[in-house]
Fold:
Amino acid sequence: MRMFNRYVPTMIAKHVYRLFQGRIYIDGRGDFEFHQGMVQAQSNADIEHYRTVSGINAEIKRLKQQH
Structure:
């Protein structure tokens, strides 16, 4: 599990894009899992969790378009 002290979508997206599967923790936002290179929302997620997932996944899609 990788821990991030701040929510920086670009840096987190690069980590997820590179590893493809695993878990991350963002200080102040909680735990997240990613599979197949995309962050997945938890079943009991709140609005802030969905916004975080959406922001990171948008950055991942941007990275995929560049390559």
